[in-house]
TrEMBL record:
PANTHER family: JOSEPHIN 1, 2 (PTHR13291), JOSEPHIN-LIKE PROTEIN (PTHR13291:SF0). GO terms for molecular function: cysteine-type deubiquitinase activity. Transmembrane segments: none annotated. Its EC number is 3.4.19.12. This is ubiquitinyl hydrolase 1. It is an enzyme of class 3 (hydrolase). It comes from Daphnia sinensis. Residues 4-181 form the Josephin domain. GO terms for biological process: protein deubiquitination; proteolysis. The active site is at C17, H119, D134. It catalyses: Thiol-dependent hydrolysis of ester, thioester, amide, peptide and isopeptide bonds formed by the C-terminal Gly of ubiquitin (a 76-residue protein attached to proteins as an intracellular targeting signal). Keywords: Hydrolase, Protease, Ubl conjugation pathway. InterPro entries: JOSD1/2 (IPR040053), Josephin (IPR006155). The keyword Hydrolase applies.
Length: 181
C-alpha cells in the first residue's frame, strides 16, 4: 500500500481562507502573509479609506482580485472556469492546481448570521491523487483520481454561487512552479 504523501496544510484562522488557500496551493508556509495580501489590497485600490478587496475589520475575507494578484507574483495565472462547459481531464491536467470559491454560512462562534460569505479552498495533485486542501478540514482530504476529481468539481459547480479557477504557470518553468512538480 502506498503511503500518504507529505502535504503542507494550513488550517483556518479568522477570515484568512484566501491566505491559507494560497499557501496550501504553493505548499509552503508564509509564501504569502496577511501583510502581503493587505498590501495587495492597497495597491489594487490606493487612496481609499474603505478597501473593497477585504473585510472592513481587517480580518481577511479577501476578494478574487487579491487572490489573482497574489498568484501573479508566483508567475502564475488564475483562470475562471466557465460553468457552462463540461470539465475534461485535459482542462485539469495542464493546471498546477485548482481553487474553488464556495458559499459558506456566516457565523461567529455558534452564532449563525442570516447572510452567506464566500470561502476559498485549494485542490492539488500529489502522486496521481487529488487532494482537497480546505483550511476548514483537520487534514487534507483525498478526492481520488482525475475522474473522481471531475465528478467532485461538477457537483460543486452545480451549486449556486460556486466558482472554479484553474491555476496555470505563465512561464515555462519558474522556481516556484518547478518546486511544485
Amino acid at each position: 500500500m502506498k503511503s500518504k504523501p507529505d502535504i503542507y496544510h494550513e488550517k483556518q484562522s479568522k477570515q484568512l481562507c484566501a491566505l491559507h488557500t494560497l499557501n496550501n496551493l504553493f505548499q509552503k508556509p508564509d509564501t504569502f502573509t496577511k501583510t502581503l495580501l493587505d498590501d495587495l489590497c492597497i495597491q489594487l485600490t490606493p487612496n481609499s479609506w474603505i478597501n473593497p478587496h477585504r473585510s472592513f475589520f481587517g480580518l481577511g475575507n479577501y476578494d478574487v482580485n487579491v487572490v489573482m494578484a497574489a498568484i501573479q507574483l508566483m508567475d502564475c495565472e488564475m483562470v475562471w472556469w466557465d460553468k457552462r462547459r463540461r470539465i475534461t481531464p485535459q482542462d485539469v491536467n495542464s493546471a498546477i492546481g485548482l481553487i474553488l470559491n464556495l458559499p459558506s454560512p456566516s457565523r461567529v462562534g455558534s452564532l449563525l448570521f442570516p447572510f452567506r460569505t464566500k470561502h476559498w479552498l485549494a485542490i492539488r495533485q500529489f502522486d496521481s491523487v487529488y487532494y482537497n486542501l480546505d483550511s476548514k478540514l483537520s487534514e487534507p482530504e483525498s478526492i481520488g483520481d482525475i475522474q473522481q476529481l471531475i465528478e467532485h468539481l461538477t457537483r460543486h459547480l452545480n451549486e449556486e454561487d460556486c466558482e472554479l479557477f484553474l491555476v496555470n504557470s505563465t512561464k515555462p518553468c519558474t522556481l516556484a512552479v518547478a518546486e511544485l512538480m
